[in-house]
Amino acid sequence: ERDRALGRFLMPMVVGDTVLGKLFPHRVLPHYVWIDGEGKVLAITGQNELTEEKIGALIAGKAELAQKKDLKVDYDPSRPLLIAGNGGNGTSLLYHSLFAGFVPGIKSGYSFLPETKGEGRRVTANNLSMLQLMRLAYGAGNRYFGWSRVLLETSRGVSLRSSAKGQAYDDWLASGNAFCYELVLPAGLSEGMFDLMKRDLSLLFPSYRAAVEERVVDCLVLKRTDRMQRFASAGGKADAQFSPFGFELRNVDIGLLTLRLEVLYLQRQVLPVVDGTGFKGKVDLKVEGDISSVVSINKGLAGYGLELVREKRKTPVLVVSDSSWVSNAKN
Fold first, then answer.
1. pTM assigned to the model
2. What is the DSSP code (8-state) at residue 209?
3. Is residue 219 helix, strand or coil?
4. Could you give the CA distance from residue 144 to residue 238 in angstroms, rounded to a whole number?
5. 109-129 exposure pattern, b = at least 16 Cβ within 10 A, e = fewer
6. Residues of the chain where predicted confidence (pLDDT) is lower than 50
C-alpha cells in the first residue's frame, strides 16, 4: 500500500533495452507479447486483449487473441522515403514522380508500362536530354516529334543539342545535359499521364516553354503526279516490310510510309515527311532501292504516280522557346 501511495511501480521494468526491441520489433505502443511458462510466444497483441477474461482463458488453453499487426521497418525520416529501402521495398507505391541527373552505367532510352487489369501506367526515361524529354511528353505516346519537328526559338538553343557522336555525345550527356525521369500513376490517374509529365517538365525547366503548334515549314511532301490511283490496295492481309534496300506495303494506310521515312530512313534530311496525296484508302506499294535517298525513292514511286517534293506545308511541330519570365528579365 505504501508503494502504491507513493506512485511506485511494483512490476519489474527494463530501461535502455537493446535486446527486446530486436526480438519483438514494433512501431506502436502498447505492445504486448504473451509468453507461456516454457518461453513460447503465444501471441502479440494490443491493449484491447489484455483483460481478466482473456488472461484466464489463455491459462486454461482456450484463448483466441487478436494478433497485432505491427511490423517495424527501418526508416530514417531525414532520408527520402522508399529510396534505398528506407521505409520498405516500395511494393505499396501508388504514385510518384522522380527526377534525377545523369546516372552512369544506364543506357539512354525510355519505356512505357501500359495500364493492365486495373493497374496504373508508368513512363521511364533514362539519361535523356531536356529536349528529348519534351519530345517524349508532347508526343503523348501517339505522335513522334523527331528533330525535324522541333523548332528552337531561344537564344540558348545551341546549348540544348549536341552534334557530337559516340563517346563525345555520351560525355556531353554526362556533363549536366542528361536527366532521368519516371512517373508512376494509379489506374484512376493514368489517362492524364502525359499531361502530368508536361506539368513536371515545366516545373523542372522553368526557363523554357514548350508547345505543339501548327507551323508552315519546309517539308518533304508525298504527292500524286497524275489522277490515277495505281497504288490503291487490292485488299488482303495488312502487312508492311521495310529495309534499307526497299519496302513493300500491303493494304495499309499511306501514312505509315511517311512516318517510317521521316523517323528512320530520311531523318538526315531534317524535314518532316507529310502525306499530300489526299488519298484515304489503303495502299499497295513496292519500292526497291536505297530508301535513305529521295532520288532513289522517287524512282521507285514513279510507277505508282507518286513522288516526294520539297514544299512548304502547315504541319504540327514542337516549339521550344524562352518562358515569359526569362523574356521579361532580359527586358
1. 0.75
2. E
3. strand
4. 22
5. ebeeeeeeeeebbbbebbbbb
6. none
